[in-house]
């Protein structure tokens, strides 16, 4: 189901996991890798392809929610304001949301827009995990340096760090850990959805 208003989101009482990140972070590729599907989430060479809240029901027991990217999407300022409005409403109102995966391009230094978004999640008590994408694009020492740098930056604002995942949509890195985590959370929250 796709829509631009959280009121119209599916009514199923099952856990929901949201995926969000800056435009061009590799969100669609990651979703397709996790689900072992080539075209579940639409991939585009042009950032900003996702423009709606997209719910995918997985194995009848949880929703994967593909949200519009933030940042450099080549859309009008007016559209960006609309995106921001319905994304904020989704996060503040969606009771089924159990975890948000904030995607970070592992090749880049900490970006203000990502840190600001995590701040918004923290202020609204929305649980989240960090997902470093495109891990195959860096050598292991450079990759470790980037992630350490990111964690140091976060510890300037946070008392403890969120869970982190290292992923590559081209090699499948992180897929098992990701899906095991979702299975575990689903077990932990099952009583809340009875």
Low-confidence stretches: none
Q: How large a portion of the residues is in β-strands, by DSSP E?
A: 15-25%
Number of strands: 7
CATH topology, which one? Answer: Rossmann fold
List the total number of helices: 5
Please estimate the helix content. 25-40%
**What is the radius of gyration?**
16 Å
What is the CATH class designation?
Alpha Beta
Return the structural class: alpha/beta
Intertermini distance: 23 Å
SSE sequence, one letter per element: EEHEEHEHEHEH
Descriptive keywords:
alpha/beta, 194 residues, 35% helix, Rossmann fold, seven-stranded mixed β-sheet
Walkthrough of the structure:
- By secondary structure, this protein is of the alpha/beta class.
- It has five helices and seven strands, in the order E-E-H-E-E-H-E-H-E-H-E-H.
- It has one domain (2-189): P-loop containing nucleotide triphosphate hydrolases (Rossmann fold, 3-Layer(aba) Sandwich).
- The protein has a seven-stranded mixed beta sheet with strand order 1-3-4-2-5-6-7, with helices on both faces.
- The model has no long low-confidence stretch (mean pLDDT 87).
């Amino acid at each position: 189901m796709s829509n631009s208003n959280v009121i119209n989101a599916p009514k199923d009482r099952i856990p929901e996991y949201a995926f969000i990140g800056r435009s061009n972070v590799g969100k669609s590729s990651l979703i397709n890798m996790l689900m072992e599907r080539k075209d579940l989430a639409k991939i585009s060479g042009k950032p900003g392809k996702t423009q709606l809240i997209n719910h995918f029901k997985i194995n009848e027991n949880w929703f994967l929610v593909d949200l519009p990217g933030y940042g450099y999407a080549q859309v009008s300022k007016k559209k960006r304001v609309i995106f921001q409005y319905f994304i904020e409403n989704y996060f503040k109102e969606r009771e089924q949301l159990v975890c948000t995966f904030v995607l970070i391009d592992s090749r880049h230094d900490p970006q203000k827009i990502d840190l600001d978004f995590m701040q918004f999640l923290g202020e609204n008590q929305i649980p989240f995990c960090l997902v470093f994408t495109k891990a195959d694009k860096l050598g292991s020492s450079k990759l470790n340096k980037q992630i350490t740098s990111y964690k140091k930056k976060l510890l300037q604002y946070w008392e403890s760090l969120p869970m982190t995942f290292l992923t590559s949509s081209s090699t499948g890195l992180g897929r098992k850990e990701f899906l095991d985590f979702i299975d575990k959370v689903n077990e932990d929250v099952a009583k809340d959805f009875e």
